[in-house]
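Researcher: Please translate sequence to structure tokens.
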Amino acid sequence: MQPTDLFLLDPDNRAFLTDQPPRGRAIRRARLGLLLTLAVLAVCLFLTGWAAVEWGRWLLLQRDYSVVGAEVVKCRKDERGDGGPEYYVTYRFEAATPTGPVVYQREQNVGRATYARVHPGQVVNVRYNNAIPAISAIVEDTNFRDGISVGALMWLPVTLFMGYQVKRCRREIRLSRRGRLLEGRVVECTATPAGEDGYKLELRYRFTAPGGRIIRDREIGYREELRDDSLPVPDTPVAILYLDEKNYKVL
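Model: Translation complete:
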């Protein structure tokens, strides 16, 4: 397989065909990508776990609960990381427990409307779980429910996506370390303008796997510049880095 005879979707892969350092660089890039993805995934898992715990707290307040009057102890306004305001109300209430009445105090993140209408010394209705009285919330405020709903809806998809990226990076590392080169053929290649990225290339190709199966696939690449004669015609050779029938890519 001569590099000069092949069409390369990514021209930087040309040296990959003749020596090993490019393969080592590909492995290092994939490992770095994996580490960064794992770091982001860890943050996503933490935030998704927080949303799940808070959602569980909210569910506990929808069953086996009591509503009592609570005294507002303190109201305060804080600032979020993005500069927006956050509102908090601290309240104190008495809950009935198997061992007798117990006084609980909790600070709750509330909406602006709740913050505006309450003041220290005022009595507000509080709902608490009978089995775990420490889990409570102001009845009239929906900020608690809305906040965890937004958190769950926002971070769960991101977490799933980052989990997919971790899997993709690990596949890339295995392919770069253990993959072998096969020859394939162009079926069709088209190019469309892609703004600042130059041109988007869509390459349809085929190759024969070691087991004899003919695999047909497509891949997307980008070129900053594109000449009229730089697009390959059908049956032009391409290089395939192949590990198995589920893990391969065209160079």
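Researcher: Any highlights?
Model: The CA atoms of residues 47 and 179 lie 37 Å apart.
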